[in-house]
Amino acid sequence: MHEMAITQSVVDAIVARLGDATVTSVRLEIGRLSGVVPDSVRFCFDVLCTGTSLEGARLDIAEPMGRARCRDCGDEFTLDDFILLCPCGSADVSVLAGRELRITSVEVGHV
Hints:
Layout: H1 2-18, E1 23-30, H2 38-49, E2 58-62, E3 66-70, E4 76-79, E5 93-97, E6 101-108
Parallel strand pairs: 1-2
Antiparallel strand pairs: 1-6, 3-4, 3-5
Helix pairs in contact: 1-2
């Protein structure tokens, strides 16, 4: 399960940046074409935050749709899955969005 390693990297990055500051929420963006399962990240987050400054923090995950542009017809279209086919039938497409995997915000509690 690579989600465990990914989530550990997220937790480590936040702790390295904020130290002992109490984190109340974390917002991630996980694109639908990233290959990362948001529900697995949620589970791992709760487990990995135990004993850290993120313990008890809320995790919000945005899941942007995939977007691509066809190199044959020039059409731009959305993708729900990894089948990279233009409505015109061409597989010669360029993925524009949906592979995101990033921390978009971290909220720190007031002392």
